[in-house]
Design goal:
homodimer, about 325 residues, 7 strands
Chain lengths: ~325, ~325
C-alpha cells in the first residue's frame, strides 16, 4: 500500500511521515496533498490560542481526555510561529501531553518554521488536511501567542477558543483587536485565581463595546465566556459541550471561514511559487545576491529592483 | 517645492502626507520612496518591542525626552500588527505621547494594517526611510507583541530593545526563542515591582544556556540586561547610553542586519507585485472568485489551482 492509502487507513506512522514531507517541503509532498484533498473537509477543526502561560497545553490535554471518553479520534497540531529562528522550541511543552502517547487514537504533532515566513502557516494548514483525511475528528490546532500569525493560523479553524488567564498584566490591553474578531469562545483558564471575576467583567465590557460599534461590524455570534481550571479538569466538560453546540449552529459562519481559508491558502502558495520561479528565471546564479547588495548599499531602491524582475519576466 | 523637497527640508506636514500615501498605497507613493531612497540609511533605527502591558509607550516617551535634551530630532513609528482587523486600535496608547505633540523636532506616527498581511511590515519599513530622509535620528520603531510579525518589524532596526516586566505569568516561557535571537538589549521595565530580580536571574540563565548551545549558533554579542522605571525616569539615561555604545560597536552586525532587511523588503515587495500581476493576467474578472470557490468546496486543491496560474503566465 502506498503512503496515501496507509494514511487514509489510519496508519499513524504514514501520517507522521507525510507531515514530515510537508515540513521539509520535499518532492512528492504536494502529490500526497493533492491525493488526500478530496477526502478532507469533514472534521471539525478547533483552534486554541492565547498568550504564553495561559495553560493552553494543559487545557488541550484535558480536551483530549474528554474526546477520547466519547471514543473520538483526536489530532493536535501545535504551532509556534515565534520559534521560527530556533526550530522547535516548544517541544518541552508537549511533554505533558505524553500521557496520551501510547493511545493510537490520539495524534500530536508540534510544528515550527524552518526558514521563510508564511511557510509555517501553509504547512500547518496542510497538516490539518492530512489529519482530517486520516479520520481524526476533531483536529485541534494550537498556537502560542497572540500576534498576526497566530491569528492567521487560528482562522483555519471552524471554532476558535481564545484562552486567557487572570492577572497577566493589563488584561484588556493584552486582548488585541484581531483576537477579538476571531474568538468564538473565550476561555478563562486558571479561573480559581484572584482576578477571574474582574477579567470576565472586563471581557463583557469589551464585548458590549464591540456590539455597539457600527463601523464595519457584521452581525455575528457574540462569543461566550467560559471558565476552566484545566489542571483539575473543572469546566472542561462544559467547554466541550459549548464547542459542539457552537459548531452545530454556526454553519453559515463556517462556510465563510472555509472560503477565507481557501483564499489565504491559495494566495500564500501562489506567492511562494511565483517568487521562487521569478528568482530562478530573472535572477539566476549571483544575480539575486547582487540585487540584495545593491539595495543594502542604497544604490537601488527595492521598488526599482522589483520592477526590473517583473519586466524581465514579461509581467509588467 | 514638491513633496519630496519639503519632506527633506524637514516639513512635518509633507512627511505625514508621504506616510499616508504609503499606507494608502496610492499612485505616486513609490515615486516618493524612490526619490528619497539615496538619502536614507543615515539614522540610527531603534526597535522597541515586548508584550502588551510592559510599558513600552511610557519608555518611548522617556526616550524622546532624553534625545530631545541632547537636541536630536526623534521620530517614532508605532506598529501594531495584531490590530489588523480593526484598523488602528492603538491610538489610545499614543495619547500619552502627546506631551511632545507641540515639539516640531518630534514626529510620532501609529500604523496598523489595512488588509493584507505583509503590507504593514513593508509600510513600516517605508515610513522609517521617510523619517530617515527627513533627518530624524534616531528613528524608533515600536511594536506591540512578541509574534513573528513583531520580530520581522524589529529586524528592520539597528538596535533592538526587548521590554519585559516582572510578574507577567511564566516569565521565561513568554520570552520566545525568536525574541531572544533579535534582542540586543533586554530592558526590565517597572523594575521596582516584586519579581524583577527573579526575572533578571531567569534571563541570565537563559542567556547562558543560549551561549552554550552549539546548534546553529553564531558567535555574537550577548545582550545586556538593563532595568528601568520609565514612569519615574529611572534608568533611562543609562539606557540611552547603552544604546549609543551598542550602536557604535556593532558595525559588522549592523551591516548584516541591513543586508537582511534589504532582502526581506525586496522579497515582500516582489511577492506583492507578482501576486497582483498574476491575478490581473491569469484570473481576470470572475476567475479569481471561481478559483477560491473551487478550493473551498474541495473540488480543486490549492496546489493544482496555483499550478494552473503559473502555467498560464508561462512561468512553469
Amino acid at each position: 500500500m502506498d503512503l496515501v492509502d496507509r494514511l487514509m487507513a489510519g496508519d499513524a506512522r504514514a501520517l507522521a511521515r507525510a507531515i514530515s514531507m510537508i515540513e521539509e517541503d520535499v518532492a512528492g509532498a504536494v502529490d500526497v496533498l493533492r491525493e488526500v484533498f478530496p477526502r478532507t473537509g469533514r472534521s471539525m477543526v478547533l483552534g486554541v490560542t492565547g498568550a504564553p502561560g495561559a495553560g493552553k497545553s494543559s487545557l488541550v490535554d484535558r480536551l483530549i481526555a474528554h474526546y477520547r471518553a466519547r471514543d473520538q479520534k483526536i489530532g493536535v497540531v501545535a504551532v509556534d510561529p515565534s520559534s521560527a529562528y530556533s526550530g522547535g522550541a516548544i517541544l518541552g511543552d508537549r511533554v505533558r501531553m505524553q500521557e496520551h502517547a501510547t493511545d493510537p487514537q490520539v495524534f500530536i504533532r508540534s510544528m515550527a518554521t524552518r526558514g521563510h515566513l508564511g511557510g509555517l502557516c501553509r504547512a500547518a494548514n496542510d497538516a490539518v488536511d492530512l489529519l482530517d483525511a486520516a479520520g481524526y475528528d476533531p483536529v485541534v490546532i494550537e498556537t502560542v501567542g497572540v500576534g498576526q500569525d497566530e491569528i492567521e493560523v487560528a482562522r483555519a479553524a471552524d471554532v476558535v477558543g481564545v484562552v486567557l488567564v487572570p492577572g497577566m498584566g493589563d488584561d484588556i490591553q493584552a486582548i488585541k483587536a484581531g483576537i477579538l474578531e476571531i474568538a468564538d469562545l473565550f476561555i478563562i483558564n486558571k479561573a480559581d485565581l484572584a482576578g477571574a471575576d474582574r477579567l470576565a467583567a472586563d471581557l463583557e465590557g469589551m464585548l458590549s463595546l464591540a456590539d455597539n460599534s457600527i463601523a464595519g461590524a457584521l452581525p455575528r455570534h457574540r462569543p461566550e465566556i467560559l471558565r476552566t481550571v484545566a489542571v483539575r479538569d473543572e469546566g472542561v466538560a462544559e467547554l466541550v459541550e459549548r464547542i459542539d453546540s457552537f459548531f452545530e449552529t454556526s454553519g453559515a459562519r463556517r462556510a465563510e471561514r472555509r472560503r477565507e481559508r481557501a483564499e489565504s491558502r491559495f494566495l500564500s502558495i501562489l506567492s511562494e511559487r511565483l517568487v521562487g520561479r521569478a528568482r530562478e528565471k530573472a535572477l539566476p546564479s549571483t544575480g539575486y545576491r547582487k540585487t540584495i547588495e545593491e539595495i543594502a548599499e542604497r544604490r537601488t531602491d527595492p521598488y526599482t529592483a522589483v520592477e526590473r524582475v517583473v519586466r524581465k519576466l514579461g509581467m509588467s
